[in-house]
Amino acid sequence: MNRLNDIAEFGGKLMLATDIDTALPLIAAEAKSLVDAERCSIFIVDREDNMLWTKFSDGIGRIVISVDSGIVGDTYKTKEAQLVNNPYDDSRFLQAVDKKSGFTTKNMITVPIFDSGREVLGILQVLNKERDDFDSEDLGRLTFFANYISGSIELVLMHEG
Fold first, then answer.
1. What is the pTM of this model?
2. Which of 47-56, 60-69, 133-142, 143-152 has the highest mean pLDDT?
3. What is the DSSP string of 31-60?
4. CA angle, corner 148, sides to 144 and 151, nearest 5?
5. Span 63-74, mean pLDDT?
6. Which three-class secondary structure state does DSSP give residue 26?
7. Local structure of 30: helix, strand or coil
């Protein structure tokens, strides 16, 4: 079974998730599986305070950053996915998050999650591909996935808000 069929099968599971605390772990597990990543974080946009915060993050507590900071912030501002295979060489990378958590980020992909009005409602971030670096196929797969899950995330966020 190929990866796109896996996404379709995943959709059935996601439809059963009626709250954000159930949906996001499912989404994160699937995102990691799609690109063989070690970790996944899902940032939600707080437009009122101009912040991005993790509603779900593997192995680390809540991360809160300004919409103007980091690679995640750049993804929010540009509305474009980012593939960064040498984050420590990228001036946008927030090394303090790794220092605080004790985790070492080797590579990452960040992808905007759009709402029905094509505004960014969140950012999907995967870290540390198990073998090698992330590539354009991984980026395409994750972009497709973010578009696939966007309606579900928007619905559960509206339901909770």
1. 0.89
2. 133-142
3. HHHHHTEEEEEEEEEETTTTEEEEEEETTS
4. 145
5. 92
6. helix
7. helix
Read off the tokens for 24. Answer: 């996001």
Domain positions in the chain are 3-160
Distance (Å, whole) CA 105 – CA 97: 10
Residues 6+ apart with CB under 8 A from 93: 70, 71, 84, 87, 105
C-alpha to C-alpha distance for 24 and 21, rounded to whole angstroms: 6
Q: What is the pLDDT of residues 6-32, one digit of tens each?
A: 667 787 777 767 677 788 888 999 999
Structure tokens at 156: 């559960």
Identify residue 2 by its one-letter amino acid code.
N
Please say if the pLDDT value at position 141 is more than 80.
yes
At 83, list the tokens.
């593939």
Domain 3-160 part of CATH 3.10.310.10:
no
